[in-house]
Prior knowledge:
Elements: H1 3-11, H2 15-24, H3 33-48, E1 68-72, E2 77-81, E3 104-110, E4 113-121, E5 130-134, E6 136-141, E7 157-161, E8 168-174, E9 183-187, H4 194-207, E10 215-218, E11 221-223, E12 230-232, E13 240-245, H5 248-254
Parallel strand pairs: 4-5, 8-9
Antiparallel strand pairs: 1-2, 3-4, 6-11, 6-13, 7-8, 7-12, 10-11
Helix pairs in contact: 1-3, 2-3
Amino acid sequence: MTAKRLAVQLRRRSARDVVLWLYRRPRPRGHVRDEVAQAISNAIGRAVAATRNRLLPSAAPRFPTGENFSISDGTVTTRFEFESGYSLQIPDPAFFPNVLPGRQSFTISSGGNDEGHSSLTAMGSLLRASIRIRTNDQMLQVPFGGVLGGAIQEVRRFSIQAGPGGATTIFEFDTDGLIAAGSRPVSVLPTDLENAVAIAIVQAISSANLGLSPRNLGQGQVQLGVTNQVVDVSGTPTLLLNTIQLSQDEVANRM
């Protein structure tokens, strides 16, 4: 089949059929690559000229950078080239505990102009005009026994401040529906153990809309998802606040 006949075959098909036909059909032998590409380009252009603004991408194999194809509407031919771009490889803190210290930074620029300056930080201050990428988090540890064991008591509190100088939200452990004015309840039962208390803490913080993403890790541990919030547990001496290292995937997701 010549390139010309290939174009004729493609022109007779709908836009959908063209895509399916090209995907399933093996590459013709004996054709110069540019001739085949031009035939496909012309055929697709004619088939979809009236609906080219409604073309939708579909799942396809990965193509190496530099591979290209062209689409024509019969008058103008547009060339497209695959570009895989760049990727960052985050070292795994599980194997290298001190590999992401605070105040390390990298920049992303376009055309020689800095688009943004990102700084990896643990707890310390940032450079001016930096975008913060926090590499650790804070975790609440509910003591063993929870409310049932007497470790968590009615009216005990902890607070979360929305960043330095921001508004402070007070959370109060509540077993009877009565809390101090201005506090948000952490509703628990007198029989709750540490895991049930952790679940109640997650629910209370989530409903407060503080920009946190708390999750129950089990065994009374609550990871808070802190970015720049300030947590104070002095109102509940038995409630511990620990700093934990984020995993490799968690650091990558924050980027």
